[in-house]
Amino acid sequence: MLALAKAVGIRLAYGIPVFFIVTFAVSMLANLMPGSPGEAILGDSATPETIAILNERFGYNLPPFDRYVQWLGGVIHGDFGATLFSREPVNDLIGRRLAVTAELAGLALLMSLVVALPTAMFAAIRNGGVFDRIANTISSALLSIPSFVSAVLLSLVFTVWLRVFPATGWVSLTDDPLLNLKFAFLPALALSIYETAFFYRVMRGDLIGTLREDFVLVARAKGLPTSYIAFRHVLRPSLTSLVTVLGLAIGRLLGGAIIVEFFFSVPGIGAEAVNAVAVKDMNLLQAIITVSVIVYVVLFILVDLAYAWIDPRVTVR
After folding, report:
1. What is the DSSP string of 183-251?
2. Fewer beta carbons below 10 Å: N end or C end of the chain?
3. Residue 316 lies in a domain
């Protein structure tokens, strides 16, 4: 237990410099954006004096480094400030939006694994067969389709032609679970298409390699059923690569959600990031980037720890 805590502490220590570098870079880049928050609030008709007064009121007249230090002091105390227009606490807004994005990413990940794992297992067992060749062709095609193209095609098929799913909008999971899933299905499916093909390719390669190991040949020589060998002896040793790409996939899903959420009008953190850039809401933009960095660091810590669970030969240090 002590070794595990030490390993987590070391990885957190590695993540601290990343946090400072990324947040400082975002703060500096925000200052390169044309215009100012005062102009975004008051509009083009406002006088320079009025804009200057508003910028001073919210602290946007400070030098970039001083403003970053002031913002960092608030973050250390758990305060991300307030949004530019509504003056709503950024913490509250991020909490609501992140829950929506997490639901979409989780649903997309579940869809991907449910399809990719059994398909990869079936293809690996029948390596070189008709099913394997068809699955490889389809996965190659799906890997070349970006999420925004998938969103357009899915909307065309399921909304315009079949009229079974709504094109835009959102209902909270706590308000109506069934209606929530109806609104979440198309965005999650658009996010899952690439990940399904990617997981399939990774798992198929690892499963084929494991099926050629000596212990599998011994199990076959004993007359054990192929399905039993596949799920009892082959699946777990083949999960190492999948665990690695799962961490990357979750980060990719959070990034890809920006376009998909904006297209389907889903009130997630991705769509909020687009709005923050459009209105120059620096507090909100920095908070979104900060939360994303924290999520990435936590994910890679969990990936490292998962190695030891999958393969007992791996020691976490």
Report:
1. HHHHHHHHHHHHHHHHHHHHHHHHHHHHHTSHHHHHHHHTT--HHHHIIIIITGGG-HHHHHHHHHHHH
2. N
3. no
The CA distances from residue 275 to 23, 153, 269, in Å, are: 19, 25, 10
Q: Could you give the CA distance from residue 30 to residue 24 in angstroms, rounded to a whole number?
A: 10
The reply to whether 298 falls in a domain is no
What count of Cα atoms within 13 Å lies in the side-chain half-sphere of residue 100? 26
Q: Do 35 and 158 have their domain in common? A: no
What is the tally of structural domains in the chain?
Answer: 2
Is residue 138 very low, low, confident or very high in pLDDT (cuts 50, 70, 90)?
very high
**DSSP H or E run through 304:** helix 282-310
In the prediction, which pLDDT does 109 show? 92
Q: What is the DSSP letter of 263?
A: H
- 135 in a structural domain: yes
Same domain as 102, residue 244: yes
**Helices and strands in the chain, H and E counts:** 13, 0
pLDDT confidence of residue 86: 79
Domain that residue 114 falls in: 98-278
Is residue 41 included in any domain, yes or no? yes
What local confidence, expressed as pLDDT, does residue 119 receive?
A: 94
Q: What is the pLDDT of residues 168-218, one digit of tens each?
A: 889 998 889 999 999 999 999 999 999 999 999 999 999 998 888 888 888
For 112-136, what is each residue's pLDDT tens digit? 999 999 999 999 988 888 999 999 9
pLDDT per residue over 74-101, tens digit each? 888 888 888 877 788 888 999 899 899 9
